[in-house]
Amino acid sequence: MFIDKARIFVKSGDGGNGAISFRREKYVPLGGPDGGDGGNGGSIVLEVDTNMTTLLDFTYKRKYSAERGQDGGTSKCFGRKGEDLIIKVPMGTVVREEESNKIIADLAHPGDRCIVCKGGKGGKGNVHFVTPTRQAPHFAEPGMPGEEMFIRLELKLLADVGLLGFPNVGKSTLLSTISKAKPKIANYHFTTLKPNLGVVALPGINPFVIADIPGIIEGASEGVGLGLEFLRHIERTRLLIHVVDISGIEGRDPIDDFIKINEELKKYSIKLWDRPQIIAANKSDMLYDEEVFINFKEKLKEMGYDKVFKISAATMSGVEELIKVAAEELSKIPVVDLEISEDEMYIPEEKRFTYEIRVEDYEEDNKVYIIEGTFVDRLLLAVNIHDPDSLRYFHKVLMKKGIMTELREMGIKDGDMVRLNDFEFEYLL
Fold first, then answer.
1. Does one domain contain both 294 and 217?
2. Is the dihedral of CA 187, 193, 199, 204 positive or negative?
3. Residue ranges of the binding site for GTP
């Protein structure tokens, strides 16, 4: 089954907590602190696997979590780092952050990899908090939490040439005659329901990959038909072969079809619309009047398209010449990566521990200042409220982070209460 979209949840590992420990040896009665640091959490890494061709695996498993870092130990022992979780994806996968829809990475080459979520940093053990006046700190630093997010995976096929055209113009037949691909072929519209890839290898030319993109019709760029689902699969192509039905047996005008498809390309992407095109006037074996092709070719030349070939995919007439010209054009077009503007790139925000302060009435004329947020949670994990040194460290952090200054600016006065989660103290100048 061809699956080219997936949505998954990823979470890196939390950092391990620093240890609170003291030397307890027989002949060292006043042993100092020796709590070790916690290990860093494992990261979430996406890596290209050239053996994968679809995102089918992600329909069965949608939640991925990396290993947590181990807590620090005694004797200054560091906790073990959590193992990174490596998730294999097909080559050509574009990774997007769901909320902003911006691109995290474009994994378009063998061996490409990217870190989606970095593991949390391990906390420092109490050995790091020794000072000349604080010889036995009874507190340590907790590990930093890991990152988490929903990401979307989009597979964009890696092909040199894209086959373009309305349904039932003979794209699948052409693909089957010039490569070993075996697409479904039938005489009804939307026979092809998924993109098909084939390798073209003829004597005298460099082999290239060609993709048959289904379902592009008028309105495709707005989601009509299957076009919007598959237009992205020709974004990486360097050359387009635009197939039209020149026979008119279905009552269609080849010029009108050509213009409509190009309008859809332009609406979807100017860069795609501006890509070099070779026009294949197919089903020439059923052409009733040669003047039809001559007029078609002249009108396209007026529009700036000079590479127009009359072919029949069914009888192979003109196909070899078409392929040789395509190979020659490809040799002139450099291979470039998908262009991603700065506005499209996802830039992770620096992880900051935030807080907010709100005020509520307390007893009589007093108020309570409630401080909430991730900063509070992390700070309280590091504090032993029954230890004077730990409490001094706690107040020092509040001063250093500017919280006490902010409280004074908000009008706090003696007797008011300050509450951080379940911990509460009276404010005194």
1. yes
2. positive
3. 165-172, 190-194, 212-215, 282-285, 312-314
